[in-house]
Design goal:
By secondary structure, this protein is of the alpha+beta class. It is built from three helices and four strands; from the N terminus they run αααββββ.
Amino acid sequence: MRKKISGIITMTMMAVCLAACGNSTADTATTEVAEVTTEATTEATTEATEATTEATTQATTEKTTEKTTEATTQATTEATTEKTTEKKKEKKTTEKKKKEKTEEKKEEKTEASKKSVAQGYVGQTLDALASACGQYTLQTGGACSLEGELSGIAYFDGFTAYLHSEQGQTVWIVDAIE
């Protein structure tokens, strides 16, 4: 393209030089050369403009397409990641709630089963009840009904046992479970 423009400029300069000589034949030739030069210049400029426009349009389209694709991909990735994260959180929360409910039910069943087991030990010794149901805390005091008799309360996990000990004995008998 630069070679064409250089050729056009050279032709234009020759036409100007011939016109300066003042020859009328040269004026006609100069005019013809000037017209040819003008047409060639216009044509070259038009071609250059079209080529530049096409190249610019193509480059702009490629960049726009690339940026749009990149933005769409990023937005889709972020949305998918966010949804996946939310689902995982919901699943973890649901699993945690289920686990807590299961543990609560187990505790209730354990307490209920311990209490039902303990009710089978009414009339037996505190030692037998403790071996079946685990550790306890004991409070003792004097009984109101007979002299020398002691009464007590044993606190287990999930129930309470009411006890008595007959005169001088150190063995505690289970009276009731509550």
